[in-house]
Design goal:
heterodimer; A: alpha+beta; Dna Ligase, domain 1; five-stranded mixed sheet; 15 helices; 22 strands; B: alpha+beta; Immunoglobulin-like; C8orf32 fold; 2 domains; seven-stranded antiparallel sheet; 4 helices
């Protein structure tokens, strides 16, 4: 832990040590006066405020709408890095879809004893309401936001698989637009893959999974819980950029197991719904009866195969914390190969050997409640007091099955504008992965979140995190696909979460 | 044994409703224990019905009705042939394994008092014996209100009272059996209770408990033990809400009132 964290631009060697591929970016950082960078930052913030890309911090009395701070220094992936990363993401998302199709269908993975069954049956994320449903083309997780961290040149780790309603893609698109406007010289000096095809790809994905027997021009909509939702901007942004309707539950009705949108011209049959409402609130007849956000009958229409819901209800079982530690086994089971993207090493305290290791190393580990969220029930060993550690020790001994433990990772950094000029700050990364009838596609970019406080590893926007543009460099000369793949085979380290 | 069932549900709204969408779980399925000879549904307004099956394997219908609606009446009538051995459920559609029914829900959760009660009542012994003791203890603890027609209480709330409807008892039994680590589910249906004909303001409710090597056993805390031969099984779920005959939503203001009449009659023995 003594060595400085890996820097995405400067590597391990400090400001002069960028590789040749990133020399243009390093030069830009050296040569652009900091005052100029500061001016551009302010201009970006003014634009974001004008656009209304704000979020409300829950629990604040004033409920002030804030904008998520934007940083003008991008992070950049080299073409071959991205190629390897993409293959890992595709493999992972294919496995997630195969797992969902299996666990709500045949359950081969349980018959072959790959997962402990109680992990599924006792898990509230396994939804009986979905049992027996097969979505078109067996696609469940149409949009995945896989959270990654990086600790070295070739060391990427999956932190979380978001397969329900991952948000943040509007930042990917808006940040890029801001960068093109504010720093056009970068786009002349570097060959950067465009991200603006995302809305088209998303619409193509939606259309490709329209219900069987649907006419050529399926009607697609975005369903939002409403303008009070913190991601409302993104919902309207996506509907707008795809050129489809943004609807609320009150705009939809179900008759005879068919979903209609109520328009001035009358009822219009809806074929595909990108819903940004959680499962619990989707249909008061099937899920929470007190939901005011949902559409009564929508699950019947879905079960009857008359409408496609994106993402599929029930996906929570695939990105659940308790399932996470089994993802390497899940990927191996469905892909038949070794996982290209490793999990963060995870000790399952339900296993006696793992528990012993965790108890012996509490001061160095992060311990998490399997069924907790939002940082509750979490121990960060290196910064915890002795009393906190002892309290966790007692809890672990009493109910080991409720806990997992992970090492504290040295997250990579990217130079970031601060009050004192450019300085390294820790980042994570959320690429967006789309799955339609034609397979899995990774958009060359994503959301980079940055912890703006010095030394902080917390990138959440509610806790002082910001965002950056994420460049993916295009390959110099389009190499034949075959040779490229050969090169990058086995580039990812294999680490298993067994304690 | 051949049984006939008539089940009337009538909603009255204080103001006309623009739309009503309901999920009906009022359709018994064939099992080794019962054969549905005839079963029909009548709705007294213009409505569209769609047949399906839910995640538990229950037969369902969606009902869609356009307003203005001041009332809506649903009548179920049918005949079921029952086998001579209804105590163990066989041949039912089971999309979920018994282990799924170990999970609890807000309605079927036991509080501390119930947990203590269940453990003490069960004592030691094999699972069948322990379950039977819980059924007896529940039966003995409450004054049973057989003619109560309103909804089913959450288990812990019902346990705090002194009187309980048959369906409250079923919900409590499900909660108590899960306390001792056995899979249990709430069952909604009809029973004669040994009479030739009986009328009630609600369908009946009982429980099924899964015992290793013996399968799903039917248990009725209202009679304090295994049920008689006259039970028609309609829907089963983790709790009473999941097996409720009607879950409904409506678009419109005002309140609603629900009247239910259930009549079950014996049609005479076969053979």
């Amino acid at each position: 832990m003594k060595r400085a964290a890996f820097d995405e631009i400067w590597g391990h060697g400090g400001p002069q040590a960028s590789g040749p591929e990133l020399e243009a970016l390093a030069r830009w950082m050296r040569e652009t006066p900091e005052r100029e960078l500061g001016r551009r930052l302010q201009s970006a913030e003014a634009t974001f405020r004008q656009l209304g890309i704000t979020f409300a911090v829950y629990g604040e009395t004033e409920a002030a709408e804030r904008i998520i701070p934007f940083d003008v220094v991008p992070r950049a992936f080299l073409a071959d890095e991205w190629e390897r990363l993409s293959r890992g993401l595709i493999q992972r998302v294919e496995a997630i879809n195969a797992f969902l199709n299996d666990i709500y269908g045949e359950r081969r993975i349980l018959k072959e004893n790959i997962l402990p069954p109680e992990l599924i049956w006792g898990n509230p994320q396994f939804r009986s309401e979905v049992v027996g449903i097969r979505p078109p083309h067996d696609v469940w997780a149409h949009i995945c936001g896989i959270d990654l961290v990086r600790t070295g040149p070739d060391e990427f780790w999956v932190l979380e698989d978001n397969a329900r309603t991952p948000s943040g893609v509007s930042y990917m698109l808006e940040n890029r637009e801001a960068m093109i406007r504010l720093c056009p010289e970068l786009f002349r000096q570097m060959r950067i893959a465009p991200v603006d095809s995302y809305p088209d790809l998303l619409l193509e994905t939606m259309r490709s999974v329209s219900p069987n027997g649907c006419v050529r021009n399926p009607v697609c909509v975005v369903l939002t819980p409403g303008h009070f939702n913190s991601a409302y901007y993104e919902h309207s942004f996506l509907a707008d950029s795809m050129g489809i309707e943004l609807v609320e539950a009150a705009d939809l009705l179900v008759d005879d197991d068919v979903v209609y949108m109520q328009t001035i011209a009358g009822r219009v049959k809806v074929d595909v719904i990108y819903r940004r409402i959680d499962d619990d609130f989707l249909d008061p007849l099937v899920f929470r009866p007190d939901s005011m956000l949902g559409v009564p009958g929508i699950m019947a229409a879905y079960r009857a195969g008359n409408v496609t819901l994106i993402n599929a209800p029930g996906n929570g079982i695939a990105d659940d914390k308790a399932i996470y530690s089994y993802m390497p086994e899940i990927v191996r089971f469905y892909s038949g190969g070794e996982p290209l993207l490793p999990n963060v090493e995870t000790w399952r305290c339900r296993e006696p050997q793992a528990l012993k290791y965790v108890l012996d190393n509490l001061d160095q580990l992060v311990v998490k409640l399997v069924d907790g969220s939002g940082g509750y029930g979490m121990l960060v060993g290196p910064t915890a007091s002795r009393a906190e550690i002892e309290a966790f020790r007692a809890a672990l001994v009493a109910e080991p099955h409720r806990y997992i433990a992970q090492p504290t990772l040295a997250l990579s950094t990217v130079p970031t504008m601060t009050d004192k000029g450019l300085s390294p700050r820790h980042v994570d990364f959320r690429p967006f992965v789309l799955t339609g009838s034609g397979g899995v596609k990774v958009v060359p970019g994503g959301l980079t979140r940055v912890a703006l406080r010095e030394g902080s590893l917390v990138v959440n926007s509610s806790q002082g995190g910001g965002t950056k543009d994420s460049f993916v460099l295009l390959p110099d000369t389009p190499a034949p696909a075959g040779s490229k793949q050969q090169q990058s085979q086995g580039g990812m380290p294999q680490t298993q979460g067994e304690g | 044994m051949r049984i006939e069932v008539e089940h009337h549900s009538r909603y009255r709204f204080t103001e006309p409703q623009a739309r009503v969408v309901q999920l009906l779980r009022m359709f018994p399925d064939d099992t080794d224990n019962q054969t549905v000879v005839a079963w029909r549904i009548d709705v007294d307004c213009d409505a569209r019905l769609r047949e399906s099956r839910d995640g538990y394997g229950n037969l369902t219908r969606m009902l869609y009705a356009e307003g203005p609606l001041e009332t809506i009446g649903i009548t179920i009538s049918g005949e079921v042939l029952l086998s001579d051995n209804p105590r163990r459920l066989e041949g039912a559609d089971e999309p979920l394994p018994p282990a799924f029914y170990l999970r609890t829900t807000p309605l079927s959760a036991a509080d501390a008092a119930m947990t203590a009660f269940a453990q003490e009542a069960a004592g030691s012994g094999d699972d069948q014996v322990r379950t039977a003791r819980i059924v007896e203890a529940l039966h003995g603890r409450f004054t049973i209100e057989r003619r109560r027609g309103d909804g089913v209480l959450p288990a812990a709330e019902a346990f705090a009272g002194e009187r309980a409807s048959p369906r409250d008892l079923a919900q409590m039994l499900v909660a108590c059996v899960r306390v001792i680590g056995l899979p249990a589910r709430y069952v909604s249906g009809y029973s004669l209770g040994g009479c030739a004909r009986r009328e009630r303001p609600a369908p009946h409710g009982w429980a099924e408990v899964y015992l290793d090597g013996q399968g799903w056993q039917m248990l009725d805390p209202t009679v304090g033990g295994a049920p008689g031969l006259d039970y028609v099984r309609v829907a089963a779920a983790l709790d009473s809400a999941g097996a409720a005959p009607i879950s409904g939503t409506r678009i419109g203001h005002g309140d609603e009132e629900l009247d239910v009449d259930v009549a079950v009659g014996l049609l005479g023995r076969e053979r």
